[in-house]
Amino acid sequence: MTQRTLVLLKPDAVERGLVGAILARYEAKGLGIAAMDLRVIDGDFSDRHYAEHLEQPFYPGLRTFITSGPLVALVVEGERAVEAVRALNGATDGIKAAPGTVRGDHSTSGSRNLVHASDSPESAAREIALWFPALDPTPGR
Ligand code: CMP
Question: Is residue 58 in contact with ligand 1, taking CB distance under 6 Å?
Answer without folding.
Answer: yes
